[in-house]
Fold:
Amino acid sequence: MADKKITELTELAEAPADDDLSVLVDVSDTTMAASGTNKKITDTNLTSRFPLLAGRDGDTLSIDEVRAYDGAGLKLYDDGGNGIFVADGGAITTNGILTTSKAIDVTIANAGNDVGLTVTQNDVTNNPVGATITNAGTGNGLFIDQNGNGIALNIDSESTTVDAVDINAAALTTGRALYIHNSSTAWTGTTGLTDITIDHPDSTGSALYLRNDGDGPNLKFNQGKDVEVIDFDACTDGGTTHTTLAGSIKVQMPNGSTGYINLYT
Structure:
């Protein structure tokens, strides 16, 4: 055994244990020769010099940071070539073709106090889109499931001359550009299911503007019960000072009766 070379020894055909020994030359110790001294070292001490190896256990890898080798980017793929690609500069793309799994699934645990997703667009030079969702199918382009007693969609727009919300539904034939629905038996709202408020006394713009270039009615009411179709409230003078009749709006009720809305100056 003493006369055998290391290359002639039996190979260990499995991953070494932490206390298994290897042979190295310690060049800082010249006891054996000027070139160094042969010494043994455990697998734990040997791999501690290389964090990528020290953090392995066969199934997982524990490491604080992974960097791309060069400007070609960094890829994290499965055995089928699907995964995440981080391009040089930080842009992240996914090339996976998903069936039953999710491309990105973010879950914040209770008391986690973290924001699930933040997209910050600071490019005011090129002004690109902040986030884009493209859906070629018939499912929802964006689905918000608000389970808590909070606002499902809150838009804070600082624009002054550009629309805060723009819905382009030019391809519609029978659908609706906007549908607001409430089937709750507990609904007791006094401000209406839809509330449009201009909250400044010096404003001169319209609260609601309707335009219809077609042949259909500009505004249509479908009142299911025998109650007021339109209820005007908050008249500042109680209707006592304007007594000159300027005109009337004819109202045809579902039961065949006719009523009028008088306009005074």
Observations:
- Helices lie at 43-47, 51-54.
